[in-house]
Amino acid sequence: PPGNDGGNDIVGAHGGSNGGGGYVNYSGPASAYPPRDQWASYDALWKQNRALMKFNDSDQEIGWIKEAIETVSRSSRVDVRAILCIIVQESGGNPRIPTTNNGVRNPGLMQSHNGSEFNPARPKESILQMVRDGTEGTKDGDGLKQLLAKYGNYYEAFRGYNSGSVNKGNLNDPVGATGDYVQKAANRLMGHSWPGM
Predict the structure, then answer these.
(1) Phi and psi of 190, rounded to 5°?
(2) pLDDT of residue 197
């Protein structure tokens, strides 16, 4: 299946570029977006996004987020870079991000479908659960793993994660959600930077 690199290694942890460059206006179907072998390396993406997390998180919380991403990537076989970038996209990596509710309750680092919120009494465990909920799904909704299995590629999975449905011919079609969600995710995965990211 997509994203399965075999063995117990963290999916997506090896290879990739050093990232860099400015924002690209990707559009159209998944085939018009950069393939996984062009994504920036996990190390490059971690360094870039760790700097963004420092605005809201302690070094200890950032360490727990990294550990949770890697643990959940191993169990779910979802690319570690995709998990990281969706965390940053959804919450800036802030575990205390407020829960949104536009008809569906979306809490936590990944703003999952009716999943777990940050628990200050159990911060490490709640960070792990938030990453699990967004990646492996909850009893109420799919995570990246289920959406990747359903759509067969990360970009359509991202659109499904954000809006619940996918216009396969135009991944910038918001289908009632955020129009540039997939475009921003692709830019994050490439290691691009832009004002206000």
Answers:
(1) -80, -10
(2) 86
